[in-house]
Amino acid sequence: MGYNHRGIEKACEEKTYIQGLYLIERVCGICSHAHSTCFVQAVEEIAGLEVPRRAKYIRTIIGEMERVNSHLLWLGVAGHEIGFDTLLMYTWRDREIVMDLLALVTGNRVNYGINTIGGVRRDIEPEQIKAIVKGMDKLEERTKYYIDLARKESTMLERLSNVGKLSKEDAIRLSTVGPTGRASGVDRDTRRDDPYAAYDEIKFNVITDDHCDVYGRTLVRLKELMESYNIVRQGLKQLPEGPITVKAPRKIPAGEALGRYEAPRGEDVHYVKSNGTEMPDRVKIRAPTLANVQAVAHMLEDGYLADLPIVIAAIDPCFSCTDRMIQLKNPLTRTKKTVAWEDLRLKGIEWYAKKGVDFSRLNRKLENCLG
Amino acid sequence: MLKELFNILVFPGLLFLFIFGMAIEFVDRKLCARLQNRIGPPWYQPLADFIKLLGKEDVVPQESDVAVFKLGPVFALAAAATAFLYIPLWNKQALFSFSGDIIVVFYLLTIPTLVFFLGGWYSRSVFSMIGAVRTLTQFFAYEVPLFMCILSSSLLANTWSLSEMTVFYLAHPWCWLFTLPGFFIALIALLGKLEKVPFDIPEAETEIVAGAFTEYGGRFLAFLRTVLNMEMVVGSSLLAAVFLPFGFVHNAALSFMIFIAKILFITALIAVAHSVVARLRLNQMVSLCWRVFAPLAFLQVLISLVIKGFLVMR
Questions:
Q1: Predicted ipTM?
Q2: Distance from CA of A192 to the nearest CA of B (A)
């Protein structure tokens, strides 16, 4: 489909759970916490680990801040797609606030690396709580302005209304998830329906909309931002005392589990099967875009060429999450070839060898280490 | 003879237009950046872009019509520069004028648009061809209100010459206030001519890469960008001459400053306009121009005719 297939699922089978966690975090640049939490929850379920409450709260807070980051990013991209670059500049400026806060708490602006099997790696300090609350207040004020803008700015209304229609029936039939489905009136949210982390102790509303078009998707995301600020505030207020991690075994007992997580783009599903060793037997990732991308073809029916970018952007697609395979097409001979795992590995070795990087020594060392 | 050549090639002709166009591009970009909460480019950025483009390799698509592809930008440049000579800038009298020069200026200003269409069409790339068709479709939408607004002004002055128009408005001060609604309609139509948001449909970058300009690069792109800059200066000078005919004083330097201020004012309006809205769809743009701006421009013509009746009776 795209140019981003990296064979992460397969690579996880040759890495330990902790190594795999960092790899999985790199499935997506924006919802990295979503993927790692989803994976970690599945592994914890197999291992039967009871995660401390404080860790659950920290996961929730980081998760919601990530949602703020993602939705603000989306709003800017949507603005750019309809030629409204000023909106892009404004939202991405405001996005800096939440990215700085994430860097303050986790040490990184993206790929936070805060999850570990059995808890989280970093605690939230009292000064950080103050900074986050201040940042959320500022962002809430800005978001109110954007909601006002989306409701009143006439050129924006013209471009977003009645574009990319998706009725409720179609939304269910095509199994859309997240804001795409909720904007068509599908009242589904994993945070409420199958609470994970600390969502069972936090009050929040699931936003739905019945516009069934790109405008509805914009409104849902904007209103979800407001909910996210509330969730972060509540989480910080109720943050329980205690440890942030429990010790996890190196070898996970045999079993299988399914992790569910409401990522900013929709429900993320990770399936993990273990065989009692340090490495998982199989990891399967179903990112939200894979569920939503089927609906795009339906939304584009009878549309204008000019609406193509915004309709595709409206599901907030993430192609690095979605890429399933690599196909090489030769336009001259018109042949197609699927790239297998082994080819990809050889290609990687060759590519680095051409650049003068040789991994063979490192590889031998690693093999010696693992015995 | 020598003086006229100097006028055509250096001041206030080609060279001045080239430099002034870059200055206006800078003002537009900087203002837009400040409105978008960015820092914006340094003052020499347009010149740096131009020089960089000149140094780039010229790539001509294999399937394109080479003559049209290469000569187009030159024709467009010449047309825009010629149109400038017929517009009264800071003197009551334009460099050259005759009865009917409004039509000629309009005709010359159409040539760049036609070149964008032909260049895009003969690039033979999908994006260019869609952009080219959009350029032409849009042209039929904005040209009518733009021309009707300028016509309303010339009707009031009862002349077909831009220079005579200026003389009339100087003899009847404040008469230009009656055509002020037309000024704003023409300004919006000018956004269409300059292909700026909300009418940047022909080069919508998220939809069709760069529209008609997709296949252009190197020197040709540099020329096309210069043409757009010149169009901006010529277009706003035309609006200034037609709708803001005042400030022609005896002191040449002061008169020049007033001219620059007028152009900067129009540039600022354009910068604000294209940073506060989203891009429209082509069908929305066409219906807006025909259903809203064309009737409004027609109303402006009627107002002008009524005022002219009063003037004649007096």
A1: 0.79
A2: 36
